[in-house]
Amino acid sequence: MKSSKVNDPRIIRIELTPLFVPFWELTRQVMDSSEGGLGMAIPAEEAWLGGDFVICKLVAEDENIGLGEAFVWLPETGVSPSQLIDIIQNALSRYVLGESPFNVEQIRHRMEINVSRSEVAKGLIDMACYDLMGRICKRPACDFMGGKTSDKIPLAALIPLMNIDTMVELAKGFYNDSIRTFRFKLGHSIQDDVKIISRMRETLGSDVRIRVDYNQAYTPNNAVRAIKAIEPFGIDFAEQPVRSTDYLGMAYVQKRVNIPLMSHEGCFSLQDIITLTELGAIGVIGINSERPGGITNALRAIAYAEQRGMGVVIHNQTLGIASAMQIHLAAAKHPSLGHATELFGHMMFEDDLILTPIDYSGGTATIPKGPGFGVDLDEEALKKYATSPTVVIESIKRKA
Ligand SMILES: [Mg+2]
């Protein structure tokens, strides 16, 4: 935080650092113990050993810095860190440099009309604007999202698809840590899905909330059979049962089952959300830190979901900056969500790139204290995990 005499400071520099953060050894063991080594992931050929990220610093002329963080993974997001950096450096930056971070609508509008798609890159910039606004005004970022409605954010646990006894032990551990919402990865076979869910209901009781994620495992016909088979166990929603791009398949399934569906790998923009909803293909909306394109669009998506009577899940495996951002978003929109938030990065990656850890105790996340997202970047860790030098994009200071 800087004290400054600059009125309405403009963004004068963008710094983008690509990094790779390995999984904790334990996370890797969990992956290895599952069939194909991908108990938590979609079935790509490449081994999943950690996360690729881009950290963004928006530097204002009063020297305040707003932080953003984007997770990228080719099988899911379809862009690499270098593509993300390239589109910002060679296209989006010109609509950001020289602007006030408070003009997020203007920045978004200009990015939107001049560069198609690229939601993850736009989201990275948008996110950093909110941190910067908070730092300039010395207020928490949630104050720019409508204000705080809750101090603590209920969390859900993620249980990867693996040996059923290990899944049960993991779930019990989370239950003992006061977690009351669970997401189980399914999709090995319909028979195994039923075994897992019936065993979990038996172990965890009728009060816990259960959601499932198929990671695109089934054809539409098999997805209908699979979801109908677990309907008796009281499931909040089912994530991505069919191929990510198969919107018609999602609609086919949703019309035949009583559990609401959620699209994850298939949903990147506001238009995706609206199209899936109008097709009758989803009943719950998923918000990632990088989708549907930053906080400005996330607020729109949540407002839309609320008007349509749909639930919202804020979820991702992020480092500390994007986790903090999602906690602020959940804190601002708590009454509109209806579902516990999923934040798994701190359990999956060996470093979260922030100086003071976020408090995840007691089955909840506490809003980090301080201006903006309330977290500070660990510069040493940034150097350690960077995969190539920081790209710096600058503009001249505005005229007085
Ligand atoms: Mg998923």
Structure in a nutshell:
With 400 residues, this protein is α/β, with parallel strands linked by helices.
Q: What global shape is seen?
A: globular
Mean pLDDT: 94
Determine the N-to-C terminus distance: 23 Å
Spans of at least 5 consecutive residues whose pLDDT stays below 50 are none
Q: Helix count, per DSSP?
A: 14
| C-alpha-based Rg, rounded | 21 Å
Bound molecules: magnesium ion
Which CATH class of the largest domain is shown? Alpha Beta
Main β-sheet: number of strands, strand sense, barrel status? 5 strands, parallel
Strand content: 15-25%
User: Level of helix content?
Assistant: 25-40%
Number of domains: 2
Series of secondary-structure elements, N-terminal to C-terminal: EHEEHHHHEEHEHEHEHEHEHEHEHEHE
Explain this structure to me?
It is a single chain. With 400 residues, the chain is an alpha/beta fold. The chain folds into two domains: 11-139 and 377-394, Enolase-like, domain 1; 144-366, TIM Barrel, CATH 3.20.20.120. The protein contains 14 helices and 14 strands. It has helices spanning 25-33, 74-77, 81-90, 104-114, 119-137, 164-176, 190-204, 220-230, 247-254, 270-278, 294-307, 320-337, 345-348, 379-385; strands spanning 11-22, 50-60, 65-72, 152-154, 157-159, 181-185, 209-213, 238-239, 261-262, 284-287, 311-316, 342-343, 364-366, 391-394. Strands 5-6-7-8-9 form a five-stranded parallel beta sheet, covered by helices on one side. A four-stranded antiparallel beta sheet has the order 3-2-1-14. Helix 6 (164-176) links the parallel strand 5 and strand 6 (181-185). Helix 5 (119-137) crosses helix 11 (294-307) and helix 6 (164-176) packs parallel to helix 7 (190-204). The radius of gyration is 21 Å and the shape is globular.
